[in-house]
Write a structure and sequence with these properties.
The protein folds into 2 domains: 11-92 and 204-277, HAD superfamily/HAD-like (Rossmann fold, 3-Layer(aba) Sandwich), CATH 3.40.50; 96-201, Hypothetical Protein, Haloacid Dehalogenase-like Hydrolase, Chain: A, domain 2. The chain contains 10 helices and 14 strands. The protein has an 8-stranded mixed beta sheet with strand order 5-4-3-2-1-12-13-14, with helices on both faces. A 6-stranded mixed beta sheet has the order 8-7-6-9-11-10, with helices on both faces. It is globular. Helix 1 (29-40) runs parallel beside helix 10. The chain is of the alpha/beta class.
Length: 281
């Protein structure tokens, strides 16, 4: 069980889109104030997102999360960044032969935008409405290239992302089903939102990132809190001492939480969780 004890440092793991941020990708005032209060009491605050580091790192100073006690778990756990020390402390990547297989299958399947990542941003072989929207919504630099693998130049990426805007959910779910046998034991595959299908190295997920951070910082697992709203948040919601699900999440996600917020992501639902489970009077 979670121990609300002032002698224990606590860690809170926060999904970004649909959780910490409102629908306009802004940080509600209530959330900012609650995070500042938690850091002032010596607790740790970690954003936990499917976004690449190049996107998340732009948000850290804007939201006051670039100080000691703040971390960014990016690529759903593929890269962990110490925001106070300004350095990566963990990274794992996908072999290039697996990347090629998924890209080839996406092109064969049709009507699927597929992209992967470099240190600078994301790369794709086609300039699509999906890539343009992704660049705008994540502030991640887009680069359209002739060949993904020439651009990677031997550097393995942390993640692949498939997007199917404008098509029904069944289309991209069918794409996932077509790859499950190949991905077994090689890659973890999940949705981070309705249209985004994520491919990460096997065992890389937000839940295992919580376990890794507990060992890294020597903080008991029962003193962790996770807050999320989407499928890629399920592992951390189930792993943390308190797994909180946002009020705005779909019902199929809420079943995994042991706390459902009363407020949604536009109303400061994260602040509600911090005040209830982290802050001492």
């Amino acid at each position: 069980m979670y121990k609300k004890n002032k002698n224990y440092t606590k860690m809170i793991f926060l999904d970004l889109d649909g959780t910490l941020l409102d629908d306009h990708k802004n940080l509600p005032k209530e959330n900012r104030e609650a995070i500042d209060a938690a850091l002032a009491q010596g607790h740790k605050v970690l954003i936990c997102t499917g976004r690449p580091l190049s996107s998340a790192i732009k948000l850290l100073p804007v939201f006051g999360l670039d100080k000691p006690g703040c971390y960014a778990i990016t690529f759903n756990g593929g890269l962990i960044y110490d925001a106070g020390a300004k350095k990566a402390i963990y990274k794992i990547t996908l072999p290039l032969d697996q990347v090629k297989y998924v890209f080839d299958k996406a092109y064969e399947y049709g009507d699927i935008h597929i992209q992967t990542y470099t240190d600078e941003g994301f790369i794709t072989e086609y300039d699509t409405p999906e890539s343009q929207f992704y660049e705008k919504s994540t502030q991640c630099e887009r680069k359209v290239v002739k060949s993904i693998f020439e651009e990677l130049n031997g550097q393995e990426p942390c993640k692949i992302l498939a997007i199917a805007y404008g098509y029904n959910r069944e289309h991209i779910e069918g794409f996932r089903e077509s790859l499950l046998e190949y991905c077994e034991g090689k890659m973890d595959v999940c949705f981070s939102c309705y249209e985004y299908l994520e491919f990460m190295p096997a065992g890389i997920n937000k839940g295992n990132s919580i376990r890794w951070m507990c060992e890294y910082l020597n903080i008991p697992l029962e003193n962790t809190i996770a807050v999320g709203d989407a499928e890629n948040d399920i592992t951390m919601i189930k792993t943390a001492g308190i797994g909180a699900v946002m009020q705005n999440a779909n019902d199929d996600i809420k079943q995994y939480g042991n706390y459902i917020t009363e407020k949604n992501n536009n109303e400061g639902g994260v602040a509600e969780v911090i005040k209830k489970f982290m802050l001492e009077a």
